[in-house]
Amino acid sequence: MIVGARRAGLSISETADLLGFSRTTISRVYREWSEKEKTSSEWQFCGRKCLVDARGQRRMARLVGADRRATVTQITTRYNQGGQKSISERTVRGTLRQMGYSSRRPHRVPLLSAKNRKLRLQFAQAHGNWTIEDWKNVAWSDESGFLLRHSDGRVRIWRLQHESMDPSCFVSTVQAGGGGVMVWGIFSWHSLGPLVPIEHRCNATAYLSIVADHVHPFMTTMYPTSDGYFQQDNAPCHKAGIISDWFLEHDNEFTVLKWPPQSPDLNPIEHLWDVVEREIRIMDVQPTNLRQLCDAIMSIWTKLPEECFQHLVESMPPRIEAVLKAKGGPTRY
């Protein structure tokens, strides 16, 4: 642009005003072009040569792939073993960032056996053609525990942006009860249902009371034409004989959805628990006892916006598709 302006007859001052550069810059650039036909800067060739070349980056990528939980210190030590040139942790950190790696928490997924993968795949195949209208007929339920004092014990891993669902980036979890306050909840696309505190361990007797006092009226109200499905996971208290007998007696009013094991990623109510948890953690005044924690949970639940839980139900087709794509394996949900 400088050369073009000068060749068009503009003076140095006019070119400087037009392009916003100093007169010295205009003069220097035009002179170097006239004398040396120079058209680019050589600044990119200045500075210290990169210590980690393409071959070194490939080696570093192999080290990260072999141990996703390695710290920068560990990666640096392993990289320098047997190498001709040693590099610092700062160089390793900068190289990893340049390669696109970042330190993130691993994606938490259930520990799935081959049998459970098969059952999850069969469920997804059986419901692969269900539309959002079909899923609106399902009432989702679950128990969840909330801790009075939260501790996440975070683990960090190295991964590329697109590697969140790579098996080496997972940290397996198993189901566990307990927590400061245990609650049971139910919802469907049409409405939030009741949230029931569970004072003690949720055994078959306690769950039978929940089913009779809360599930039954919710299902008959939401689905008066008996076209509703009730979803529950495979917790031991849900599979007890007295529970199965109760559902059998009321099978003319609604259907119990046959649910695959270890499938919290398919149950949208899990995301509602996350919403409640986040709302608790951002409260200006944190609960200091279990009564306050229970009151906070109940208050947040009743204020959940309709679009929040309706959007979760509408996410079911993509969830099913993700399970099919993973062949029954864990998904990002």
From TrEMBL:
Question: InterPro entries this protein is in?
Answer: Homeodomain-like_sf (IPR009057), RNaseH_sf (IPR036397), Tc1-like_DDE_dom (IPR038717), Transposase_5 (IPR052338), Transposase_Tc1-like (IPR002492)
Swiss-Prot/TrEMBL GO biological process terms = DNA integration; DNA transposition
Query: Which Gene Ontology MF annotations are present?
Result: DNA binding
Q: Where is the Tc1-like transposase DDE domain?
A: 180-281
Q: Which Gene3D superfamilies match?
A: Ribonuclease H-like superfamily/Ribonuclease H (3.30.420.10)
| Pfam families (alphabetical) | DDE_3, HTH_Tnp_Tc3_2
According to the entry, every stretch annotated as the Transposase Tc1-like domain falls at 57-128
User: Where on the tree of life does the source sit, at the highest rank?
Assistant: Eukaryota
**What PANTHER family does the record tag this protein with?**
TC1-LIKE TRANSPOSASE DDE DOMAIN-CONTAINING PROTEIN, TRANSPOSABLE ELEMENT-RELATED
This chain's protein is named: Transposase Tc1-like domain-containing protein
Organism per entry? Cyprinodon variegatus (Sheepshead minnow)
